[in-house]
Here is the input.
Amino acid sequence: MAFRADESAQRGFEAVKNYLVPRDIEASERERSEKKLLEIVSEYGPVVDSYPSWHPLVTHHDDHHPLTVPREECGYKGLDHTRYFLNAFITCPYDDGQKVIDSVEALPFSSIATITAERLDVQLYNSNATPILVCCDWQNLVNHNEMIPASLAVPLMLQKEVPCWEWSQCGEDWETMRSYFLGSPHGSRSSLFVSQETGLAMKKIWNLLLSTEMFGPMRSR
Here is the structure.
């Protein structure tokens, strides 16, 4: 089945709204919560299931074990009941969220993007939880709700993958790696993160690297 970005984005938003907006709060508070989610989507892009392993929100991980969702291994502390957007995520711990904020402030400096965290003034997930919005603001993007261009996606992919040649024992084909490179949901070479053109460029470059056997011989299926 062809990947349909608009349909995937709409399904994702409905799922996140049902998960994060409490049903047992007053109608006015529920309306505020839904409005805040729409604002986040407008500013930071659609709901996603996971990130490309090169995305700044998850890039600080052990490259032997790449991650595609924010976790403690990426430098975050105190995450709980977390949902993801193109360039942000919301987490709702049952405390004041200070552990999350402190861990974000302690992330290594990046010249590519700035990661920040703030408390939201609406109820999300549960009235006893503190919703925290963690945002990725790209230095070279004006609109942070748009797809990531090849000029960023390709070098970030290479930055994460090329050093692996030193310890890798075999090459992994595009079918195996595309969830790590495209994020999810995704199609054969596009996702909510990258366009068909960008995904095709990434695929061509990856196949070229594999052809050198720099990662070792191809893993047999």
